[in-house]
Amino acid sequence: MFRLTRKSLLSVLGFIIPLFILSALVPVIRRPVLAVLRLPLYVFNAAGREVRGIVFYHRNYVDRDRLARRIDFLGNRLAAMNELSVENTRLADLLSLKKELPYKVIAARVIGRDPSNWSSSVIIDKGSSHKVRAGAASVSFLGLAGRVTDVRGDTSTVTLINDPNISVSARVQRSRQEGLVCGSLGGALLMKLLPKDCDIAAGDTVVTSGLTQIYPKGLLIGTVSTVARDFSGLSMYAVIKPSVDLASLEEVLVIAE
Amino acid sequence: MRKIIFLGLVLAAVLVQSTLADGMRILGVKPDLVWVMVMAAALYFDFSDAVICAVLAGILKDVLGISSFGAYTLFLPLWAAAVRSLSKRISFDHAAVSAVFLAVMIFVNAVIIRSIPPVSTGRLSFMAFMHIAVIESVYTAVVFACVSPWLRRVAVSTLW
User: Fold this and answer.
1) Which tens digit of pLDDT belongs to each residue from A180-213?
2) How far apart are CA B138 and CA B140, in angstroms?
3) What residue in A sits closest to B70 (Cα-Cα)?
4) Which of A24, B6, B111, B126 is the most exposed place for a label (fewest CB within 10 A)?
5) Secondary structure (H, E, C), chain A
6) Cβ contact (<8 Å) for B70 and A24?
7) What are the beta bridge partners of residue A183?
8) How far is A50 from chain B, CA to nearest CA, in Å?
9) Three-class SS state of B26
C-alpha cells in the first residue's frame, strides 16, 4: 500500500506544482503556440474538407440538386422583395427616417475547432493584424454564428452561440417577444426568460434584439422548433433551431464596425 | 527515436481532434483522440516519457480550446502517472481492461474538470452533461480498443 511519508509528499508536490504553474501559463503560451500551429491546422483542415467531399459525395450531390431548386425559388422571392425594398426606401426617405449603415465585415476561414466536447468554438485565420477585435459579433451568410472571445496576431477564437457560456438577447420577429438565447452544446439553442403567457409558436423567427452593444439588432438566430413550460411552471422556454449549421461552419464574417 | 515518433503522433492526434474529428461525431459527441494517445503513452512507455507525452498533449489541447486555465495540462499528466503506477498492480495487457479503465478515467475527469470554476460549464444541464460524458468516454474507449494494437507496435518497434 501507498504510505504517506515526508519524501513521498515532497515528490508528489514536486510533480503537481510545476504542472499547476504550467496550467496557469496556458493563456500566455497560447499566442506563440497557435502561431506555430496555424499552418498545420490549415493543412489538416483542407485535407478534412477533401475527405468529407469524397465520403459524403452522394449526400452532397442530393443537396446540390435540392439547393439549386431552392435558389430558383428564392430568386423569385428576392425579386419580389427588391420591389418592396425600393418602395420601403422611398417611403423612409419621405418620412426622413435615419438610415442604418451596413456593417463593415471581415471575412475569415475556420482553420480549427475546439478539441474537446465541452465547449463550442472555432479558430479563424484573421486576428488583430486584420483589425479583428475581441467582443465583435461574427455571422455567416445565414445568420449569427458567435462572438470573438480571443484575438491574437493572425488568428482569433470565435465562441459559437451553442456554447453554454454565451447568451444572446433575442426577440421573436412576429410578436416582438424578448428572451435570452443560450447554448446547450448540441444542435439546438434554448430561448429562456419567456413569460408563461408569451406569444411564441413553432416556426417563429428569432433575431437579435440589439439591447446589448455586442450583437447588432436584427441578426437572424434561428427558428422556434418547440415551446414548453419550464420545470417551475412560472415561465416558458423555446427550443431554437439555429439558422447557421454550427457543426460545419467553414467561413465566418466578423463585424468590424 | 520511437519516443520522438510517438510525440509526433500526439501532435497529429491533437490536430486531427481539432479539425477532422468533427466528422466522427456520434449523437453529437466526438471521440477524444488525445486521451487515446495519453493512455497509450502511459501503457507503453516509462514514467517520465509518459508524463512528457501527456504534458505535450495537455498543453496543445488547452491551447486550441478557449479555457483560461489549462485543466488538461494539469490533469492529463496526473492520469498518465496514475496509469503508470497502477500498471504495476493491475495487468493492462488485455485491450478490454485498458479500454474500460480509460472510459472510467475520462468520465471521472469530466466530473472533476466540470467542478473547477474557471472551466466549469455551470449553465449546462445535468442531462446534457451526462449525455456528453457517457458517450465521450465509451466512444473514446472503443476507439482506443481498435487502435491500441497498432499504437503498441509503433511504441515497442525496434525499427527506429
Assistant:
1) 998 888 778 999 888 888 888 888 999 998 888 8
2) 6
3) A23
4) B126
5) CCCCCHHHHHHHHHHHHHHHHHHHCHHHHHHHHHHHHHHHHHHHHHHHHHHHHHHCHHHHHHHHHHHHHHHHHHHHHHHHHHHHHHHHHHHHHHHCCCCCCCCCEEEEEEEEECCCCCCCEEEECCCHHHCCCCCCEEEECCEEEEEEEEECCCCEEEEECCCCCCEEEEEECCCCCEEEEEECCCCCEEEEEEECCCCCCCCCEEEECCCCCCCCCCCEEEEEEEEEECCCCCEEEEEEEECCCHHHCCEEEEECC
6) yes
7) A189
8) 11
9) strand
3 state DSSP class of B29? strand
**Do residues B81 and B47 touch, judged by C-beta distance below 8 A?**
yes
Torsion sign, CA atoms B110, B24, B70, A158: negative
* Contacts with A11 (C-beta within 8 Å, 6 or more apart), sequence order: none
Chain B: give the shortest CA distance to residue A86, in Å.
43
Q: What average pLDDT does range A130-144 have in this prediction?
A: 89
The model's pLDDT over A19-61, given as tens digits with 9 standing for 90+, comes to 888 888 888 888 889 889 889 998 988 888 888 888 888 888 8
Region of residue A210 (phi > 0: left; psi between -120 and 50: alpha; otherwise: beta)? left
- Give the one of B32, B68, B128 whose C-beta lies nearest to A184's C-beta: B128
Residue in A45, A117, A121 to test binding to B, most B beta-carbons within 10 Å: A117
